[in-house]
């Protein structure tokens, strides 16, 4: 009889981008962060299992368990109480992998962000007029990057193959880019995975196993770091861009109600920045602003939603096929009326957030002038913040199921970005939001010099 091995895996998730884990309440914002009894954010075990199961695909049902109806096997069918027709008997298997919630012991910082729906002219939609949708402007809480979450996974089964498949799955998840929460295709919820493993032979180490508490802070200090394999192939096409600003950038946040004529829609127009945790005695869950002036403790950021909007608009102009656009970038059709069902397709392309480094922030005051009289318009004095000549990275992950025609169109959009024909953010009509690409890689292969023909050549070699 073979030994019974009980294995524990400590999964450390280092948050690389803001995380949205909503609790369904709207006390502080339209979507508040999920907090535990200690008022600290956490990632539910169901979310961890769900994300890993999605990456594993249907072929790994044995790892995560399943429930299905049997209708073909006559030996599993039984008569119902009425004695008439056969009743299908459920067939199920419990998951041998047990997950805990991912909790944090360190200081975490919760911030607020807002989103707004813009029309094709980058004008904020009004909820109260035709064409505006309910929720066109909304805000939500996020957990700031840098937070460390720890979860425990355990396997209690005398099956070496099962443990090996689980470890291969962790490597695949790390290679593809592990994300949790909402808006993961728009750069949020990205984490870096580190794994520690500890196993017990229950035939020989029963007392040691009984004394072991995987949730103790130092329980894995004597265990080895589990090396995640880099040889695991990813099912995604990864494009890595090194960007440099040509001029200024304005990614603003909105403070007034959209369409409210009694309040200015944009007040002091500050940059959207990603606040960095500071080393002080602040308590866990401290609420800090995501809209401060760029400084040593905060950096300007281009949200993945801004990149997705700019790319989608130019992509739709190139392919001129709404079906292809919706398939690649996703869509949501909110049903209206009785007996109508919401329709949605998840985006097959993921955009990271771009944090701008080494930029020069500037505060500019502008006015609007009446084109006929030359006089200053009433209530048209605007002070805004912009950042100039910074650098940042953009990572685009594309499902390999996207057809080649769409991939070529995406390469054309990247070429437009490099050549100055595509801008992102506000004030693009006066030269803001333009970038040049200093370096480009597709699945690790360099594209040099950056041009459409070279992109196409490298792309064909990767697909």
Could you name the key traits of this structure?
single chain, 463 residues, alpha+beta, 6-stranded antiparallel beta sheet, 5-stranded antiparallel beta sheet, 26 strands, globular
Write up this protein.
With 463 residues, the chain is of the alpha+beta class. 19% of the residues lie in helices and 31% in strands. The protein contains eight helices and 26 strands. The strands form eight sheets. Strands 1, 6, 9, 10, 11 and 12 form a six-stranded antiparallel β-sheet that branches. It has a five-stranded antiparallel β-sheet with strand order 20-24-13-25-26. The longest helix has 17 residues, at 160-176. It starts with a strand and ends with a helix. Mean pLDDT is 79; it is low at 72-83, 128-132, 255-269 and 276-296.
In short:
With 463 residues, the chain is an alpha+beta fold. The chain has helices spanning 45-56, 61-64, 160-176, 206-211, 304-319, 322-329, 404-419, 452-462, and strands at 5-15, 66-70, 78-79, 86-87, 89-93, 97-99, 109-116, 137-143, 148-156, 178-179, 190-201, 224-226, 236-245, 248-249, 273-275, 286-287, 298-302, 331-333, 343-345, 349-351, 354-355, 360-369, 376-388, 391-399, 435-442, 445-446. A hairpin with a 2-residue loop joins strand 25 (435-442) and strand 26 (445-446).
């Amino acid at each position: 009889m073979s030994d019974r091995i009980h294995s524990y895996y400590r999964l450390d998730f280092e948050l690389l981008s803001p995380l949205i884990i909503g609790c369904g309440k709207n006390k502080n914002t339209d979507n508040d962060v999920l907090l535990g009894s200690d008022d600290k954010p956490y990632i539910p075990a169901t979310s961890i299992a769900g994300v890993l199961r999605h990456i594993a695909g249907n072929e790994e049902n044995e790892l995560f368990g399943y429930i299905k109806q049997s209708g073909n096997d006559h030996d599993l069918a039984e008569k119902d109480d009425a004695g008439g027709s056969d009743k299908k008997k459920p067939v199920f298997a419990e998951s041998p992998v047990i997950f805990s919630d991912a909790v944090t012991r360190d200081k975490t910082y919760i911030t607020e962000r807002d989103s707004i729906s813009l029309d094709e002219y980058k004008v904020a939609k009004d909820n109260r007029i035709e064409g505006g949708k309910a929720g066109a402007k909304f805000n939500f809480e996020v957990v700031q990057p840098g937070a460390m979450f720890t979860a425990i996974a355990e396997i209690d089964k005398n099956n070496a193959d099962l443990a090996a498949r689980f470890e291969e799955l962790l490597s695949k998840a790390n290679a593809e880019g592990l994300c949790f929460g909402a808006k993961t295709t728009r750069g949020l919820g990205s984490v870096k995975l580190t794994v520690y493993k500890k196993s017990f032979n229950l035939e020989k180490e029963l007392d040691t196993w009984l004394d072991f508490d995987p949730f103790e802070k130092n329980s894995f200090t004597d265990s080895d770091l589990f090396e995640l394999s880099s040889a695991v192939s990813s099912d995604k096409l990864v494009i890595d861009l090194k960007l440099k600003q040509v001029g200024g950038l304005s990614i603003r946040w909105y403070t007034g109600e959209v369409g409210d004529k009694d309040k200015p829609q944009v007040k002091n127009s500050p940059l959207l920045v990603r606040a960095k945790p500071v080393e002080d005695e602040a308590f866990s869950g401290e609420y800090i602003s995501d809209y401060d002036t760029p400084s040593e403790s905060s950096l300007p950021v281009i949200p993945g939603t801004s990149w997705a909007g700019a790319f989608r608009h130019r992509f739709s102009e190139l392919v001129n096929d709404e079906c292809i656009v919706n398939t690649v970038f996703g869509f949501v059709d909110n049903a209206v009326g009785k007996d109508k069902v919401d329709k949605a397709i998840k985006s097959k392309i993921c955009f990271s957030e771009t944090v701008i480094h080494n930029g020069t922030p500037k505060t500019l005051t502008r006015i609007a002038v009446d084109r006929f009289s030359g006089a200053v318009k009433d209530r048209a004095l605007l002070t805004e913040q912009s950042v100039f000549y910074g650098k940042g990275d953009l990572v685009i992950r594309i499902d390999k199921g996207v057809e080649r025609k769409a991939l070529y169109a995406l390469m054309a959009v990247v070429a437009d970005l490099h050549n100055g024909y595509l801008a992102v953010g506000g004030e693009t009509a006066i030269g803001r939001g333009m970038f040049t690409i200093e370096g480009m890689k597709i699945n690790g292969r360099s594209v040099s010099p950056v041009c459409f023909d070279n992109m196409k050549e490298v792309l064909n070699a990767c697909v």
